[in-house]
Amino acid sequence: MIGLGSYAFFWQQSEQAEAPLALIGALERTAELGVGLFQICDYAPLLAMSPAEIREVALAARRLDIRVELGTKGVAPDHLRTFLRLAEEFDAELVRSMVYAPGFRPSLDEAAELLAAAMSDYESAGTTLALETYEQVPTRDLVALVERVGSDKLGICLDPANVVAGLELPRDAVELCGPLTRNVHAKDFAFARQDGWVGFTYGGAPMGQGLHDYPHLLAAVRPEQRGINEIVEHWLPWQGDIKTTVEAEIAWTVTALDYLRSNR
Question: Fewest CB atoms within 10 A around its CB: which of 37, 65, 74, 257?
């Protein structure tokens, strides 16, 4: 299933926006685009919301017929259980996380112990925990960690764009993670020469116009056949002013949805 994530609304929800979108606004925009899935990912205000506010957002999602996934960072059992409780409020079947959280960088051995302590609760709830590929943990180590914990509710959120900063090739990450992938972050990426031709900038690109071999990902992971959701997000750089940046963000989202729908 194709979905949108918080990072597809990064600038629309930013403080720079004249009227920053709240969660319900992002859900309404998602519904307007004919999308039935939204991943609330790294959305800092979520943990500060009251139970009544959480219920209001969850009811809005149900009213709009939008399924919800959640996203956070870290593997501390208490934190993961907090997100499991939130997942129950939203009827979310998946929580995306990352091995490291701000101020907490466990060793892989420690991460395995922490995950093992949390996964029984996820298994009982029938909720999947997907750890994202990114440059701070080599992909082979992430795969080994998931295999070591050995839970059928623990998998990988595949984001091939992230691993480039760790000097890995996106295609290699796709092939390593394919069997364990439970979620995909779908965005394109490219290099551009910096002004003056000294060095490069690595950033986002409209879907289908960058370096991401997405057909290779589709062939290796088979998300549609395996019921793996593809969540659209962007690395959209500042475009000089908020109006132009938001307009570009909306256009990139439409481009990504068109690309993913045409490649089903």
Answer: 65
* Residue 9 backbone phi and psi in degrees, to 5: -125, 25
- As a three-state string, the secondary structure of the chain is CEEEEHHHCCCCCCCCCCCCCCHHHHHHHHHHCCCCEEEEECCHHHHHCCHHHHHHHHHHHHHCCCEEEEECCCCCHHHHHHHHHHHHHHCCCEEEECCCECCECCCHHHHHHHHHHHHHHHHHHCCEEEEECECCECHHHHHHHHHHHCCCCEEEEECCCHHHHHCCCHHHHHHHHHHHEEEEEECEEEEEECHHHCCEEEEEECCCCCCCCHHHHHHHHCHHHHCCEEEECCCCCCCCCHHHHHHHHHHHHHHHHHHHHHCC
Domain that holds residue 56: 2-262
**What is the domain count for the chain?**
1
**Quick check: 139 and 163 in contact, CB under 8 A?**
yes
The pair of structure tokens assigned to 63 is 């009213």
CATH number of 191's domain: 3.20.20.150
- CA 242 centroid distance within chain: 23
